[in-house]
Amino acid sequence: MEIDSHFRFDPSSNRHHDRGLQKVLDRLSQTIERDALVRQTTNQLRELLQVDRVVLYYFYGKWSGQVTFESLSDRELSILGSTGPDDCFNNEYADMYLAGRVRAIADIELEPIQPCHRDFLRNLQVRANLVVPVLIPRGLWGLLIAHHCQAPRSWLASDIELMQQKAQNIATASCILGS
């Protein structure tokens, strides 16, 4: 067996590898923290508001996104992965949410909304919904949405304030801002 006499162990040669590994670990830690925060928030909101479903609709691209988290009163109400109505969420709506719009609909059957929006909500078994933007310095990160499926519901000012507070908590969390 021949040993290469030119090879010398250099512990500093692992620094680049260690930095890369540390970045991966930091990113993983941040993702776990973010997921725990959003899961806890959606669960708290569903319980406090006494609604059937609370979801986070996350924007992964320019006005493109999907439901990435949900808290449900019944598993049959799951819409996880739903991407929303293709033609209904356009730049006009995105700009309104980017400006901080909160949308509370007590009864989708009586609210003057676009037919495609009403049909979309019906398909999700929604009767009343409350939508609050999650705004970070870079823009619209997501929408925090409460769905009441059983019957119409008049949303109280305290319901809206609670949703806004929780959206703000998400938006200012270091695990969100750093991602």
What does this structure look like?
The chain has 179 residues and is an alpha+beta fold. The protein has a single domain, classed as GAF domain (Beta-Lactamase, 2-Layer Sandwich). It contains five helices and five strands, in the order αββαβαββαα. It has helices spanning 15-49, 91-98, 115-123, 157-171, 174-177, and strands at 53-61, 64-72, 103-105, 128-136, 139-148. A five-stranded antiparallel sheet has the order 2-1-5-4-3. A hairpin with a 2-residue loop joins strand 1 (53-61) and strand 2 (64-72). Helix 1 (15-49) packs antiparallel against helix 4 (157-171). The chain starts with 14 loop residues before the first helix and ends with a helix.
**Name of the top-level CATH class:** Alpha Beta
Strand order of the largest sheet: 2-1-5-4-3
Unreliable residue runs: none
Cα shape: globular
Order of helices and strands: HEEHEHEEHH
Biggest sheet architecture: 5 strands, antiparallel
Quote the CATH topology: Beta-Lactamase
What's the overall average pLDDT, rounded? Answer: 86
> What is the CATH-assigned architecture?
2-Layer Sandwich
What does the radius of gyration come to?
Answer: 22 Å
In short:
With 179 residues, the chain is an alpha+beta fold. It has five helices and five strands, in the order αββαβαββαα. The chain has one domain: Beta-Lactamase, CATH 3.30.450.
Describe how the helices and strands are arranged.
Layout: H1 15-49, E1 53-61, E2 64-72, H2 91-98, E3 103-105, H3 115-123, E4 128-136, E5 139-148, H4 157-171, H5 174-177
Antiparallel strand pairs: 1-2, 1-5, 3-4, 4-5
Helix pairs in contact: 1-4
